[in-house]
Records
---
Amino acid sequence: MWLGNQKDIEQTHKKKVEETAQLVTLQFEKAVQGNINTLQNLKNRLQITNGSYFDYWEYDAGLIVEQDPSFLFIEWIDSTMVIQKVQPFEGNEEAIGLDISKLDYRREDWLKTKKDSIINFTHWLGLVQGPQAFLIDAPVFYDGTFQGTITAGMNFTSQFDLVMQGLDQYHVEILDDKGTLFYQYGESARAENFPSYTIENPIELNNTDSGSWVIHVYPNTIFETANSSLGSYLNLVLGLALSILISVIFYYMQTAFTAQKSSRHANEKIRALIESSPMGIYAIDTNGVVRDFWNKAAEEMLGWRQEEAIGRFMPHIGQEWKDDFKELMDISLKEGEIKNKEIVRQRKDGSPIHMRLNVSKLVGNGSENQQMLAIVEDITKETEYKKQLENSVHEKEVLLSEVHHRVKNNLAIIVGLIELQKEGVPDKKLQMILKETQNRIYSISGVHELLYNTESFTEITFGEYAVKLIDRIRSMFDSGERNISIEHQFESRGLNINQAIPLGLLMNELITNSFKHAFNEQNEGKIFISFKEKGESIEVVYQDNGKGFDKDIFEHSNTLGVTLIRTLIDQLNADYTIQSVEGFKFTFYFEAKGRGAHSNL
């Protein structure tokens, strides 16, 4: 009986440590995620207002630092990697004007968040300002350009200490993704005496590029008390052989009483932690009946009081969601947990509520007595805001589609007007000039036509566009008297509209010039065009086997065609080379832009 009781006590302690570790881990994740969300909100205000919120930025940043001790400072780092603003200014004066590109421990991570637009969460490190902290960089984009980052120095010690209040029987250590210890709580001198009770959990930081933190929870004095009682029992057995039975009974009663008292005291603290949680927490069995816990947050969130919920099937699950509940329960029993599942349920007043659900096993080994701990968060306002954003994006997509359609139609009208004007012009040379003008307009309208006919409103597949452009120019100049062939190699590459239009105009001018000037004394000719990716750049090669073209003439000619080619090369910000030993070869390189001054994003 005594051995069985000791096993039950050990299992009770283990489960208590597991439950405490899980709740503490969730509270730590919530605290850190809340600070990340605060920084994200500050960033969103700048992006939504296209930077005009900078007038209030320092005031808001100062309030955040003043109200939340986890924020050591908040600073603005512009796109050149120089710290321009910091709150509070006092004590951080040395940071102003600091070029972080010269800091090896900051440069690569900061450039990475600029490139992939994800919040950067550094490891625990020492700062120029003095103390150690985490640095969180939130990238800011508006006007189609990366503007810089809102960067905060954070130390979560005060928030974590608040979570650990009343849990002095535990020693907690947290290590960052590089294995650096940055937080510990409670006495550690005797923690190594209970290795079988030690719990290790990951702390995940959503929407950041940080790796997982690791939290270690060690039991402390409460378990030492139980073990010291075992030592007292062995001393009694050795010293009092005649009263061995009485000693066993006394030891059993004393151990059971101590364990129950300690467990009751610990459970009271756990319940106090659950009751004070801002998230709804309740415990259910595999049939969905509320068995234990229904904290105040659950009452306020769903409307049912604790006495109305405990002992009943979860009241916020109507008939239409029972199949969904069974599916979620099967998943939790199979995988042991459910994380961040978004669900819709019903309040007592009949209104729907959107919730984020986390479920984990609580107690029990068999399917009949298995209980699950459910933690829910009200995300109704977040869901409504997300829906508003989706509707706004859809409206803008429809507007962009209509704009491209109208631009294409208006350009087609212009081409038609030129065609009518051309019919009344007897001068063949002037007719050719008007044809060339029509081709230039078509090279622009072709981009808008592809944008209208594709799902993307920002870029086109250049190969598809270029093939149509080549066929149109060939039909204009191919009289059947000369055999001019055009070969091309186009890799499937998307270009944004602000690069596709000048590149299309450039192709139009080069092919037109070849037909008009390169093969004057030849009955046969060949044109070759290639479009390839070279790392972050695009390589375009245009080549014909005509009579060639002097580079000096290209540099100094004032003709419309050559002037257009030079202007379009400058617009693409391209580097080029010309070879005219045998025929003509024009090679140029430019960087494909997804964001920036040459982008419409």
Note: The two ends are 74 Å apart (CA to CA).
---
Amino acid sequence: MGRQINVALLGNPNTGKTSVFNRLTGLNQKVGNYPGITVEKKEGVCTLERGLKAHILDLPGTYSLNASSLDENVVIELLLNKNDKDFPDVAIVVADVENLKRNLLLFTQIKDLGIPTILAINMADRMKRKAISLDIEQLEEKLETKIALISSRKNEGFETLKQYITQYASLSVKPCVNASSIAPEYFNRLEKAFPDQDLYKLWLVITQDVNFGVLERGALKGIATFQTESTSNLKRLQQKETIARYQFINEVLKETLAIDTENAKDFRSRMDRILTHRIWGYIIFFGILLLIFQAIFDWSSYPMDFIDSTFAAFSEWTKAIMPPGDFTNLIAEGIIPGLGGIVIFIPQIAFLFLFISILEETGYMSRVVFLMDRSMRRFGLSGKSVVPLVSGTACAIPAIMATRNIESWKERLITILVTPFTTCSARLPVYLIIIALVIPEQRVLGIFSLQGLTLMFLYLLGFGAAIFSAWLLDKVLKIRSKSFFVIEMPNYKVPILKNVMITVVEKTKSFVWGAGKIILAISIILWVLASYGPGDFNRAEEIIAQQTVGQQLSETELETKIASFKLENSYVGHMGKFIEPAVRPLGYDWKIGIAIVSSFAAREVFVGTLATIYSVGSEEEETIRNRMAAEVNPVLGTPIFNFASGISLLLFYAFAMQCMSTLAIVRRETNSWKWPLWQLFAMSAIAYIVALAAYQFLK
């Protein structure tokens, strides 16, 4: 048939909706943003019977259609707009078998919109252990829909679910709750004013405007001016609707759901008492972090060494097989070393995302958020702020977008401003190569390496800087606000390998492609600036010949001196010399200065920049790490990357705001250039002062 239908995947947070999405679509997915906003949009394709294809849209998690955040608003705006290209032909509401009562609230609301709706009850493999029994046939009859009992972990029930999607046209669209019964008089007036519109859809449009501000909706735009009731009365009617729905749900579940609590084996409560303990909880959390950072160093060392030497050999091989000239030099000295400077860190970044994904899949990350809420409150934040701060270890951009769930504008603004202090994966390449150069490979207690401990310290330092900054901003910003912290603790689950691997592949690919484009562009620009220059640059051979008269130099030594002279007198050399006075007190030379300036585009560019600069004119097959280790201060004769300058550089990158993309997101989220500019200048100043103090103290 070759037809394609739109399927909306909906559900409360922590019902396993993403796992269901992954099972249905596999790797046929793409991630982007909804037009004009920064909420993540995940969509994929699932092949059904008779050539029918389902375009599945994984909508943000929401507890109901009464929106209070942008994520929830995205869901409702799509369901209210039949003209949207993604408007669903059928909706799948994913419910957790242990929280069916709460999950059914969203189900009844969506079904009452007249959209064919399937109920997918997830985590069915837990029913026996939790002593839960469900009469599926009777539940289908009461809800007038089709119900698929599924298990994402065991991949059970998905063929039945696909079959129900194929047969969506036969599903009943009869409402579960009659909207007019909530307030008959009000709904009669509404029906008279808009006789051609669906009553429940009108009701949602009106309450959306009350909850979230007046919104533009084309055909239903006139609803925003329909003010027959005060805001307080509309809120009261909304509460009546929720009560009416729960009354319906209670009646349904009374006859279809049974839980034998005496025979349930409650592992969750015992684990929660340990993992959220006010002392042991923190010890376990920091122990897990230490193991993660230790593994990042130990496990990834072999693939890193292989990648490093491979790119060095590839660069030399390119020079050997291609004809001499600028184009060959551009590829061998500019593009290949620049890309090698980011590809080398794929193993560590993949391991980082692997561990984060496992922590989220098991349900432990929610315990961390709950645990840290106790500490957050004294710094003017709530547990909701921990989600962006923790997810900021992957990337500050989605972390800042995650602040949209924070209702308090003051808490949200503070979280946006301090999240870039959290050590993101873009800092990881800088940390790893500098740590490898200046921290010895010694073991503590025979288990933990000094390098792994240093990496963990830098992560804790970033988190500590974010918390301290939040405390200062809470005192400085005079914005009145009040909020409450509510979080749902998901059940503990064995991670689904497929979900974990999809997350690792997608996140790593996103990081590499995003960084790769910037690296490639900057590598080409830097190669051009380093390969050409004014004045003495073009007389390098003549000048070096005059300077070395009477010296017995080999051909290799002579070529090295010429290459070094050219680099120092190139355009990039002149730029580096210009900014060197500003960075010399921090222990850096002009080459590191150029790398720092270029990395304001993106932090990870630092390593790629040095790789390009050190490769220009080099004929030796050396790795970037060896070249950096061999770099010597021409005045003092000591290594450039020593303990003092290395620590200074690590601290500079721990505090500096060097990511144009993050600044753009902050501008978008705050709708002002004031906050991102303050953020840029403040973080850069802190980074400079701390790095200066560290170098002067340690040198």
Note: Confidence is low (pLDDT under 50) at residues 33-38, 210-225.
---
Amino acid sequence: MDNPDIIYKTDALIASDIDSYLETHQHKTMLRFITCGSVDDGKSTLIGRLLYDSKMIFEDQLASLEADSKKVGTQGQEIDFALLVDGLAAEREQGITIDVAYRFFATEKRKFIVADTPGHEQYTRNMITGASTADLAIILIDARQGILTQTRRHSYLAHLIGIKHLVVAVNKMDLVDYDETVYNRIISEYAAFAKEMGIEAFTPIPISGLAGDNITSQSSNMSWYKGPSLIEHLENVEVMNTANQSGPLRLTVQWVNRPNLDFRGFSGQIASGTVKPGDEVRVLPSGKISTVKRIVTMDGDLDRAVAGQSVTLALNDEIDCSRGDVIAAADAPPQVADQFESTIVWMGEEELLPGRSYWMKIGAQFVSATIQPPKYQVNVNNMEQLAAKTLQLNTIGVAEIATDRPIIFEPYADNRDLGGFILIDKISNATVAAGMLHFSLRRSQNVHWQNIDIDRTAHALQKHQEPRVIWFTGLSGSGKSTIANMVEKRLYALGKHSFLLDGDNVRHGLNKDLGFTDADRVENIRRIGEVARLMADAGLIVLTAFISPFRAERQLVRSMLPEGEFLEIFVDTPLSVAEERDVKGLYKKARAGELKNFTGIDSDYEAPENADIRIDTTKMKPDEAAELIVDKIVGSWAYTI
């Protein structure tokens, strides 16, 4: 198994001429790959064997290796395979590789970065993280177990995110007596599944990670196998640079560099294409056109820059360009849209709530986005498209997504940087999903904002007041509607123009199609928020009385309005007190199991953490609360503009 020429040649070069080694090492090609598959398929053991048999040394051990090599001559530095594998296993047991563990190593021909990810289903999100930058995926299959659900899931995900090179490594062949029949059966089954997924080709290799068969050289135990060893394939596979030089120019601006008044540059990595001084470029989303004046790097100006290089472009015109903008070829710009079809891999512990607003990060762009109910969910076992109202942990679905402003994008199949995104929960800041944009929806191109002459300022001037949305929130029976009604009566007496939106009243018409599931509650508040915003645009003081149980949706409505126009009033009533009141008999029904998804009983209420006003109804009567609100908030407004 061990090949002395492979093992010691690099060590000898380090010992005799470290400068030559570093020069050679610097110009090697790089392959990023991921090991994945089900639990106990042997991922860590395989990595340990690769490191041991090929003497692939972690980059951060290079200095130590150089010193040791000079001491022992051409024998190099011995690595105990058992200790190495035990170390990897210990990491797994201690939870260290619950996040992605990256290993850095090299052979004579190529440098490698391998992402070692956990095989447990609940950590599928980590597999996505590792695969997002990989050129190749090694799908491990235990020869004794055959193809499992996680095998199919990881294969589908690897294909979905655009990994072109798949290696199907049937591992633990030593435990099935190196039986060719077992191997052929597994590969035949995998080939049928791969065809259903649209995988055009894959490389099958029978191996034993523990025994070292077909890892660095062909195994005598499997003379029936005539293909390359695993490391031979990894060294020689032709990987197209994800940064495509033949495509049109794409540079996402990461930093605006202006050290002095005489220089303004836009820094970032070229995702595709080439650029040289004099080239005409277009800056998106503004669409402004200029020409490249200079290509600046730490080592001086360049006459030409290509995909994969990080540069600073100076333009000949002073045009608006900021972080997240894209500098593109003027005659072939990417698209700009705000509605898309996408594939979403849900990674959050809590299920997707259609209509909820999430942060969306796509390249250097950071926007607010909402997801519609999925068109379907994918069954990774048979690729069946299943009906779904939401997505749960580790499920994959296709859904439409809308952003709060147009973004620069390209289909993920054409450009990972401008087509791949993540979704972030606005409250917890946890990453809850990864996704791939397919195409923009036609309606996003056909719907445009219509400018009107009588705007919100004109409406407010006519009414001699500043528009506001006063948002009352609290449990059912807390007294929201009662207090809101009293506040509006006082506003009316003051001659102010207002309108009260009440939760029960709205559900008789606008939201009569919605129930009381979490998803329906989210959509209920989203619609009310849009109505309240339009009323505020008309110059009105809008009062709303809704349970609105989730902080995220209350924050969504706040974000719809100009700073200072949204006022959150928490009508704080203990659950026990609200139950005692129970004017509508709802709590009694909920306790009896006759009313499902009732807030405070079997559905959560997320109390405001920093409400603008808190009303404790155990200490204050409704009329006193109304007077307090008018005096302390409404009374401080500048109504005359």
Note: Residues 518-537 form the longest helix (20 residues).
